[in-house]
Amino acid sequence: MLNCLRETVSGLGNFLYVTWSNSDCGEINVCHTSKTHRSSDKRRGRPIFDVNTKLVAGMLHAGIGPSHVNALLTSINTPPVSQSTFKAREREVGPAIKEAAKASCEEAMEVEKECWRKETEEVVSIGASYDMGWQKRGKGHNSLKGVGSMVGLRSGKVLAYSTRNERCTVCQSAKQSG
Fold first, then answer.
1. Is 76's pLDDT higher than 60?
2. Would you say 133 and 147 are in contact if contact means Cβ atoms under 8 Å apart?
3. Strand runs (DSSP E) across the chain, as ranges?
4. Start-to-end CA span in the chain (Å)
5. Are 5 and 19 in contact (CB under 8 A)?
6. Could you identify which of 35, 121, 154, 167 might form a hypothetical disulfide with 50, taking C-beta atoms 3.0 to 4.6 angstroms apart as the criterion?
7. 8 Å CB contact between 108 and 155
8. What φ, ψ does residue 65 adopt, rounded to 5°?
9. Short-list 136, 137, 134, 138, CA closest to 148
10. Segment 48-63, tens digit of pLDDT
């Protein structure tokens, strides 16, 4: 592009700084290569590309990490996305995903209660199955992260879940700083 003075890459989106060839004013226009939005807590600064937010939401949904996403992107000849972009978008979509999961569990609990409810409106006991495990990493080496879930016996829906992490970043930082 002859009129493009420079390009700034931000994940899968780009900012193109373009000047008009038939104008002598020298004004530079910033063009986005994808739709953008603003974070709810930030009204200033650079806009966020929707495609990056959707990429991270898809990554979390698929249960893969940034290295897997970047391996896929580079295999289709697309530049990889930086760790800082992944982390910033995770912080953006994380609370929304947690809220959706919480609402889903509450709805599933009501469905499970209804499955067990007799003809009375009293407190209902329900049956559920709980399982928890630590994730594996590599060839049998234990990861520091674990996850558990409780599934209703009648509905088969997830009623509750929990995650555990053996490493605390606050404690780790305190140990390193003495």
1. yes
2. yes
3. 4-10, 13-19, 28-32, 36-37, 48-49, 128-137, 141-152, 158-165
4. 54
5. yes
6. 35
7. yes
8. -110, 175
9. 134
10. 899 999 999 999 989 8
